[in-house]
Amino acid sequence: MSIIETEAPLHEAHRDNHTHRDVNGGWLRPAVFGAMDGLVSNLALMTGVAGGAVSPQAIVITGLAGLAAGAFSMAAGEYTSVASQRELVQAELDVERRQLRKHPVDEMEELAALYVSRGVEPALAREVAMQLSKDPEQALEIHAREELGIDPDDLPSPTIAAVSSFASFALGALLPVLPYLLGATALWPAVLLALVGLFGCGALVARVTARSWWFSGVRQLVLGGAAAAVTYGLGMAFGAAL
């Protein structure tokens, strides 16, 4: 009894400390990268137009148009992509469902062979496969996980993907436009706010990578700033040529 009492706190401590970051990104990765995409693309678009020495009103219209066009494009693309992926998965699940119905013994042996390949003794592997195959829906879920690498009960939603992409892109694209909407007439407040946003997005990305927050923040700030500088230079060149 003393051994159990001594080891129990250790198991609890291990359970509490043995946690991992969300390597799949969850909601954070698409949200952060969507906002970053909107921020970089709209900042580059606005600085490119500003380089052509146009009026502040023209820059605001350009920024708002870039926000709307980019957000709708992102939403439509994400919806189509996720819906196509979901339809493909459903088609493969239908194939697996038919195979389980027509060839249950072969599918059971296939599952047993999979467990054997992972080190389970053949007799035990066959017994486990037989038990799991008694429930058709459970068998389908296991085959889908093992053969396709998917969870039939956790397929992505096209609508959620589209809405989240639209919202995150629009939020990021709004940052460089915001100073103008609040009365600014010069470009530098928009660039400054956008660079702060780029650093913040980069720092958030560190939550789903192995990099430090400051490294990710500085890296994204430099990349986004470089894109804005290049497009500003192109805007100046094209403006002078026209």
Architecture overview:
It is a single chain. 30% of the residues are buried. The radius of gyration is 26 Å and the shape is elongated. By secondary structure, the chain is mainly α.
Q: What is the element layout, followed by pairings?
A:
Layout: H1 2-17, H2 28-50, H3 56-102, H4 104-117, H5 122-132, H6 136-148, H7 158-181, H8 188-205, H9 213-241
Helix pairs in contact: 2-3, 2-7, 2-8, 2-9, 3-4, 3-6, 3-7, 4-5, 7-8, 8-9
Helices, by number, come to: 9
For the secondary structure, the number of strands is 0
The radius of gyration is: 26 Å
Residues in helices, as a percent range:
over 70%
Strand content: under 5%
Overall mean confidence score, pLDDT = 84
Task: Spell out the key features of this protein.
disordered N terminus, elongated, 242 residues, 9 helices, mainly alpha
Quick overview:
With 242 residues, the chain is mostly helical. It contains nine helices and no strands.
